[in-house]
Amino acid sequence: ICARKNQVQILRCLKKLDDICVVFLGNGPDFEKLRKSAPENAIFLGNVNNVYEYLSIADGFISASFSAAFPPF
Questions:
Q1: Among the listed residues 28, 45, 33, the one whose alpha carbon sits nearest the alpha carbon of residue 11
Q2: Which end of the chain has fewer CB atoms within 10 angstroms, the N or the C?
Q3: How far apart are CA 8 and CA 12, in angstroms?
Q4: For residue 12, is it left (φ>0), alpha (ψ between -120 and 50) or beta?
Q5: Segments in the chain forming alpha helices (H)
Q6: What is the pLDDT of residues 22-48, one digit of tens each?
């Protein structure tokens, strides 16, 4: 959770969409700041060891990142 990943943009959009829920996985320097300012339909779980399980049950994947790399599953 950091500026490079641009979660702020996702949260701005999420504030206008009360019929969906977004789960944020991972940690970083902006984790607490974003979690505290997030709407109720944003869930911050921090680091998890089972990212694939979350992706497999999700309806979609959102990224607004300025740069991204995906680890092998």
A1: 33
A2: C
A3: 6
A4: alpha
A5: 7-14, 31-37, 51-57
A6: 999 999 999 999 999 999 999 999 999
Query: Tokens standing for 44?
Result: 């911050």
Q: What is the pLDDT of residues 46-55, one digit of tens each?
A: 999 999 999 9
Structural element, H or E, at residue 1: none
The position carrying tokens 């497999």 is: 56
**Position of tokens 């505290």?**
36
- For residues 71 and 61, give the distance between their C-alpha atoms in angstroms, rounded to a whole number: 15
Please state the pTM of the whole predicted model: 0.82
E strand or H helix at 46, and its extent? strand 42-46
Query: In Å, how far from its chain's centre is CA 15?
Result: 14
Identify which of 41, 37, 36 has the alpha carbon closest to the alpha carbon of residue 18.
41
